[in-house]
Amino acid sequence: MRVSYSWLKEFVPDLPPVDALVAQLPMHGLEVEEVIDQSKGLETIVVGEVLTVEKHPQADKLQLTTVQVGGEHILHIVCGAPNVRVGMKVPVALVGTTLPGGMTIERRAIRGQQSEGMLCAEDELGIGTSHEGLLELPADARPGQSFVEVLGLDDVLLDMSLPSNRADLLSIRGVAREIAAVLGLAVRWPAESSSKEKVGKTSWKAAIDAGSGVQQLSIQSIRELTQPATPEYIVRRLRSAGIRSVNVIVDITNYVMLEYGQPLHAYDADTLHGKELHGRRLKTEIPFVTLDGEERILPAECLVITDEDRVLGAGGIMGGKETEVTPETRNIILEAAIFDGPSIRRSARALGLTTEAAKRFERGIWMSSPQNALRAARALLHTICGGIVDGDIVSDGASEAKAVAIVVDLGIYEQRIGRSEKMSELLEALRRFGYVIKGKTSVTLTAPDWRMDVHGPEDILDDLGRVFGYEDLPALFPPSAVIPERLSESVQLKDDLRQALVQLGATEIILHATYGQQAVDQVGGEHILVANPLDQTQHALRASLLPGIERVILAEVDAGRDAFVFEIGRVFCGQGGVDEQPWRVGIGLALKVPTGSAIDWEVNGKVRALGRILRRSVPSCMPNVRMVKGRTIASVEFDLQAFGPTQAITLAPQGLAPAVERDVTIEVEPTMAYEQVRQIIMSLKLPLLQSVTPTNLYEVEGSRKLTVHCQFQDAARTLTSAEADGMIEKIAALFRR
Amino acid sequence: MINKQEILEAIANAQTPEAVESVRIAWLGRKGKITVAFEEMTKLEGDARRVRGRELNELKQEVEKALVQRLQQFAPTERPYDSSLPGRPVELGHIHPLTTFSLRVRDIWRSFGYSYHEGPELEDQWFNFDGLNVPKDHPARDVQDTFFISDHPDLVLRTHSSTVQLRIPVTHHIQPPFRFVEIGKVYRHEATDATHESMFFQCDGVLVDRNVSIAHLVTTLKAFLHQLYPGKKIRVRPSFFPFVEPGLEVDVWWEVPGRQGRWLEVLGAGLTHPNVITAMGLDPKVWQGFAFGMGLDRLALIEYGIPDIRLLYSGNLPFLKQF
C-alpha cells in the first residue's frame, strides 16, 4: 500500500525524517518496499501560459505555440496535443529535462520549425496514465512556478508491505497508529467535528437478512448538497494512492476510505426506489451494469444491496451505474457496511474485479468502523459541500464486538523472548497499541476492536516484539540435548546414486513434475491430473521420469552431441494417495552407436558400474531404445526401492602366484546372447581359468565380434606363456567356423 | 644362432621409435628369439646351462641398452613436449547447482544435530494449510496460489515445505524434544518468468522442546548463517507467518563489488503457534517450539550468478555442465 508521508505526519507530529523512518520501520515489522519521491525528475518542469497557437505549415497534426514561462521568457514549442489553446496553463519541460519515460528534451527542429521544450500530458510526467491531452493546470498557477509546487508533489510516498493478518493497517490512521506504537511516539487525532450538523430524524431505513453474510449495514442520508471542485489536497492524496478524481462526493468517500480503511458508497438518493436499503445474498445470478459501465453477471451467492425492487450493487465490490452519484446529484445516501470477507473474495474473483473496497472487506472490517467512517464522511461533506445532514446514522446488524479478555502473565515476555524489559515499559507499549489493561504483572488485556488478529498471549508477545525488536538477544542454544537420527535408507541411497552417476560422467537434471497429454499417452496407465494447470501441456503429474529425460537428450542429439543424464525425483502414481509418490532414478544416454547389441553394451556397462560403485544389486532393466539422427538414445528408470541392500566388500586373496592374461577375439551369431557365449567357454571346464570378461564388442554386417579377456591362474606357480596360449587356443577353437 | 651384430645393426638402422619397438619385439618380445633361447636354455644341464645363461643375460642387457640409447636419439630432437595440447576430452559428471546448494544447507543443519526427514510433495490440505493455522478462507488457499488435484479435493501439491512441521511428528510418531530439517520441492500456481518458477526448493526446520525462546531461535539461525555466509552482517526483524507467533525474518547484508549493498531476505521463522503444537498432538502448555524456512532457489541464483531461474529446471545441459 502506498502511504503518504505528509499525511502520516499530520497524525504523528514527531515522525522521524523519511530516511530515518525507512531505516527504522523494518526493524519493527513494517516493510517499506519502495520510497517514491514524486518530485524526482520533475525539477525542471515549470508552469507555462500558452500565448499563441498556429498551425504547423508542414504537418496537419502539429501546432506552433509560444509559451510564457515566467518573466520575459517566451519559448517557441511545437505541440501535437489536440486540447492546446490560448490562455491555458500547462506543464512545460524545459530543454535539458529527462522525463520519467527516459526521453531527454532538446532544442531541435520539428519538420523545419524550432522547438525549445515540450508541453506535457499526465503520463509523460509519470504522475498518471492519461494521454488524452495536455495536463491543464489550475488557472491561478503562475507562469514559471515550479510544477511540483503547483501539484503538491513535494510529498514522499512509502510503498509498504503490511502483514496480511492486519486488516486495520489498510488505512492511513491504522498505519499512523502502528508506527506511533512501535516507535514509541504520540499520535494526535484531529478533534472530531461536532455532530451539530444533524437535523431532525431521517425516514430512511437499513436492514439486513440475518445470516446472509452482510453483517452490518449503516447508512446516512444527506440532502441539498452542492458540488464545488474537489479540494486540491484530496485530489492529490487520492492520486498518490492511484485513485482518480471523479466528483467531490465520490472523492470524499474514497478519501475517508483511505484515511479510515472503511469503504463507503454514495447513492444518488433521487434514483432510489423506496426509503430502505437492504443487505442480502443473491440466490441466483443476475445481469447488472456496474459503475464502470460494464454489464456483468453477478454470481449467485454474491452479497448485494437492494432498494425496494432491484439490486443496487455488488456489496463491497462495486456499485451500480443506475444509482451512481453524478455532477447533478444533490441528495445522497452514504452506505458503510461489513461484509463477510470470504464471500467478498469469492465474488470478486468470479467477477474478475479487485477493487480498493474489496481488498479491505476481504481482510475484514471491525464493528465500530462503519459508523466512525460515516461520521467522518458526513462532517467532511458538510464542510465542503454544505447540505443538510438528514438525522443520524441508521444501522442494522451487530455494531459491537464481543471483547475478548486475554489473561497473561507478562513474565512470559522474558521466557519466550529471552530478554527482560521493565514492566512499566511493556505496559506502556501495550497501551500505545490501544489495549485496555487491568492488573499489574498478571494482567487482563482487552484488545481494541480493530485488532481482529489478537487471540492469545502469543499475539501480545508479537506486538511487544515489534516494539522492542529481536536484535541483541543473549546467545543461547535450545536446552535439550537431542541425538540426531541417521539418514534414512532412502535419503542415503539417493545421495549414493547421485555420486555414483556423476562419477560415471552423467549430468544431473531436475525437471518439472508435470507433463502433457503426449507424455501421458507415451507412459500409459493412470495419471493424477492437476485441477488447475498453468497450461494444458502441464496438466498431469508425472508417473515416469522418462518423457522428461528423453526430451532433454533429444535436444542434445538435435545439437549434434552425445548425452548422458540422470534425474532423481518422485513420480506420482496409483489412485493419488499421499503414500504413492515413490522416488525413482531415471538415466538417459545418447551415443553414436548402432541400435543393436552395441547400445546394450553401453547401457549395461554403465548399469554394472553403477552397481559396483553402490555395492548393491541394480534392478534388471529394459531400456527404451531408438535411433534418432544418427545416434541411439536409450533411457531407463528404476524405483529406488528395487535396489538391493548394500553388500560387504569381498577382497581377493593376496600372495598368490601372478595370473597370466590373454585376450581372444571370437565371432558369434549376432542373436547369441553373451550368456550363451560364456556358457560355451565354461563348458571347457578349464581348471585354471579364473575369470572371463568381455572387453570389446563390434558388429559389422551380420557378424558380431567379441573380444574376451581371460585370466588364468595357478595359486602355487606362475604359468608359462605356452600353457596360457594353449588354453586360449582351445577357447578360440570353440568359435571358429 | 643369435648374431649380436645383426641385432645391433637392426637397432642402428631403425629410423623411427616404432621400428625400434619392432626390433625389440622380434628379439625380446614374448615370442622373441632371445626369449625363446632362454626357454630352450632351461632344457640344458649343469655348466652348459650356466654358461648359456650368462651369455644370454649379457646379450639381453647389451640389446636393451642399445634399444634405450637408440630411442633417446629420437625423443628430444624430434618433437618438444606439447603442453598446450588440451588432451583427450574426459567427460565429467555434473551435480545440479540446486542439489549442491541444498546439500550444503543440509550438511550445516546435520552438523548442528538436526535430523533430516523428507515429506511428500503431493500433500493433504490439512498438513499444508489447516494444521498450520491457515484457515479455510485464507487468501493463500486461493486457486491463484495452489495447484489442486482433480477428483481429490483433499490433496494439493504442497505450497511450502512447512508441511513437514506436522507431517513428520504426526506420521513418524516422534516424541519431543526433537529437531529436524527437510529440503524439498514445493509448488506455486504462478506464471513463470526470470525470477518466478512454479516449482522451487525450500528448506524447513522445526524444533520442539520445553521453554523455547526467540533467543534460542535467533542464536540458532545466526549460527547457521555464520556457516553459510561467514562474516556477513545479519539483522533480525519482526514479521508475520500464520504458523508462528511471534514471527520474524532474518536478512543478510549482501555486497557485490561494483554494486550497492542491500539486505537480502534469507529466512522466515518464529515460535511455533500454539495451534500448530496442538495439531502435532502435543500440549502447548508443556511444549513450545520454533520453526524456520528458507527458499533455496533465489539464494542459489545469487550464489552462482545465474540470471534466470528458468534455467534451473529446463534440462539445459550446456548450462548445467558448467557446475
Question: How would you describe what is shown here?
Answer:
- The complex is a heterodimer of chains A (737) and B (323).
- The model of chain A has no long low-confidence stretch (mean pLDDT 92).
- Chain A contains 18 helices and 35 strands.
- Chain B is built from 11 helices and 10 strands.
- In chain B, helix 1 (4-13) packs parallel to helix 4 (46-78) and helix 5 packs across helix 10.
- Chains A and B meet through helix 7, helix 10, helix 12, helix 13 and strand 26 of A and helix 5, strand 1, strand 2, strand 3 and strand 4 of B.
Largest sheet of chain B: 7 strands, mixed
Strand proportion of chain B: 15-25%
Biggest interface reads: A-B, 85 and 85 residues
CA gyration radius of chain A, whole angstroms: 40 Å
What are the main properties of this structure?
heterodimer; A: 737 residues; alpha+beta; five-stranded antiparallel β-sheet; five-stranded mixed β-sheet; 18 helices; 35 strands; 27% strand; B: 323 residues; seven-stranded mixed β-sheet; three-stranded antiparallel β-sheet; 11 helices
Write the layout of secondary structure elements.
The complex is a heterodimer of chains A (737) and B (323).
Chain A (H helix, E strand, L loop, with lengths): L1 E3 H7 L6 H7 L6 E7 L7 E11 L7 E6 L5 E6 L9 E6 L13 E3 L2 E3 L1 E3 L27 H4 L5 E6 L10 H12 L14 E2 L5 E4 L5 E10 L8 H9 L7 H13 L4 E4 L7 E6 L4 E4 L5 E4 L4 E4 L4 E4 L3 E2 L12 E8 L1 H11 L4 H8 L5 H17 L2 E10 L7 E5 L1 H7 L5 H11 L2 E3 L3 E5 L10 H12 L20 H15 L3 E2 L5 E2 L1 H7 L16 E2 L4 H13 L4 E8 L12 E9 L5 H18 L9 E5 L2 E9 L20 E9 L5 H9 L6 E12 L2 E10 L8 H14 L3
Helix pairs in contact in A: 1-4, 4-11, 5-6, 6-9, 7-8, 11-12
Chain B lengths: L3 H10 L3 H12 L4 H9 L4 H33 L18 H15 L3 E2 L5 E3 H4 L19 E2 L2 E6 L6 H9 L5 E10 L11 E11 L4 H15 L5 E8 L2 E11 L7 E11 L1 H6 L8 E8 H9 L12 H4 L3
Parallel strand pairs in B: 1-5
Antiparallel strand pairs in B: 2-4, 3-4, 5-6, 6-10, 7-8, 8-9, 9-10
